[in-house]
Amino acid sequence: MKAEETTDTHTHVVIFPCPVQGHVSTMLKLAQLLSLHRFHITFITTDCIHHRLHRFGDIQALLQTHPTLQFKTFPDGLPHNHPRSGESLVDLFHSINLHAKPHIKHIVLSAKPTLTCFIGDGVFGALTVDVANEVSIPIIHFRTISASCFWTYFCVPKLFQSNQLPIRGDEDMDRVITCIPGMENVFRCRDLPSFCRGTESDIVFPMNSMAFETRETLRARALILNTFEDLEGSVLSQIRLHFPRVFTIGPLHAQLNSRQDSNPETTPSTNCVWEVDRSCVTWLDSQPLKSVIYVSFGSIATVTREKLLEIWYGLVKSKKRFLWVVRHDMDGGDRVPAELEEGTKERGFIVGWAPQEEVLAHKAVGGFLTHSGWNSTLESLAAGVPMICWPAFGDQHVNSRFVSEVCKVGLDMKDVACDRDIVERMVNDLMGHRREEFLNSAEALALLANQSVSPAGSSYSHLDHLMHYIKSLGQ
Ligand code: UDP
């Protein structure tokens, strides 16, 4: 279907992501895609994220390129100097659940032209469905996690019923989980989402728990996932038994690039809430083909100084070239051992925030040491870059298993001590001994990822179907 066939200046969609980098940038990409087809979009975010998007993202370019896109904001209820990352992220979730509803309702009720539908982040499942019901507009949930993780969250109550949960201590961690349909025998206890390491009363019953919020999507009209059919087909067919209308439109960044490329009026913009340091691209330009391991732990995970040093020693001892993102809110400390400074000068480059999609697509990059956030995972898969997965929390444990066991495009470093010798060995495995094996499977998957967003691909046609579906809600 061509862009102009779905062009519609009356369809108005309000989009509300969880106000953290990974969710905001993904849902902003969907906003851009819909606005390329002239849908009106009201993008709701917090004052804090909006301020950071203005400061570090390319918001002026974005608004010029997408005249039917507008932002509306509200306060997140946290003090100005709250870190909004790492463990304190939970405060942000609580605060949004407590304070956001009247703000979102007000924005939705005063929206012009009249709203067609509300695309809400399913991480706030109950909040977004309640808002939509109270103002009588159709609600669609967007989950920015993998289909496998969404499905695992959904199956958690069943895991308790069938005595596969709770996990009975450290010695139980390698027990294989047999009853997640479509993913039988893939996960061990240690690969389940990190919250599964608690008790049933921590996990299933509390409002706002992931298991609870995920089931709220049963009340939504449809579900959007940032994945593609060739990647997660067997799980998607299980999900569709409970959620009949699922649109798989990923990898979204590749879909946006593909549709923007065919639309000469648009210019790419960054959706970053951190200051991008592009000097690393110049550095990469002078490195040999696939010689660099890129290291980044996303926008939220924090790493202690002790672990930072172990990773740093591991990278330097591996003698491989590395590009490392150390965010300014991670404690790098002032005193750096001389051998690390020396090793970094020789073969390394450190920045506070990188243009990650561009970095992963760069010809000099041959591996990625990642925390296994879903966006990072998809960006790496689409670029054909093998991974070492060092998950911290949330869905990352699921993703690291998926990458290593299902896709076979990397190594899983979960639950091993963060130790310089282990980092050195893993980097050498990925970039040395097992390089060909991983590169071959990564390149095969990248081909499928990029086919899915080309005009004959599944994600491309799912996005067209989504646009038709949204339009039908307004009739
Ligand atoms: N990212 C980036 N530059 C960096 C680090 C991360 O642009 O230096 C982007 C990355 O491309 C991804 C997002 O931040 O789109 C992180 O999302 P992800 O789901 O991987 O992890 P989260 O930050 O949510 O834990």
Automatic annotation (TrEMBL):
Coiled-coil annotated residue ranges, if any: none
Top EC class of this enzyme: transferase
One example GO MF annotation: quercetin 7-O-glucosyltransferase activity
Keyword line: Glycosyltransferase, Transferase
Keyword Manganese attached: no
Domain of life: Eukaryota
Family: Belongs to the UDP-glycosyltransferase family.
Identification of the protein by name: Glycosyltransferase
